[in-house]
Specification:
mainly beta; 3-stranded antiparallel beta sheet; two-stranded antiparallel ribbon
Length: 93
């Protein structure tokens, strides 16, 4: 398996709480309006740009290592980044 950049080890009987998510999001908006004055024969164009910052709430991932299978001593937990939105866990010798 390819190596992921973030990770930690859990030993049998231990439990670990990992914060998942909780990042900032930016929402960009654009609105354009046109108006035409028939009498004055003028055209008006209005452009509005907006940015809204929101924070995604945090959640927690709880990982507990049970009894180790024969020949294995610990669990390695890996994630491709520090968000831990994707994880994999494997018993290792």
């Amino acid at each position: 398996m390819p190596s992921w950049s973030q990770g930690f080890v859990i030993y049998p009987g231990d439990k670990r709480r990992v914060k998942v998510g909780g990042s900032d999001r930016y929402i960009f908006s654009v609105s354009v309006s046109f108006s035409y004055n028939l009498l004055a024969q003028t055209v008006t164009v209005t452009v509005n740009l907006g940015v809204t910052k929101t924070t995604t709430p945090s959640a927690y991932l709880y990982i507990r290592a049970g009894e180790a299978p024969e020949g294995y001593t610990k669990v390695e937990v890996d994630s491709p980044d520090s968000s831990y939105l994707k994880t994999r866990s494997n018993w290792v010798p």
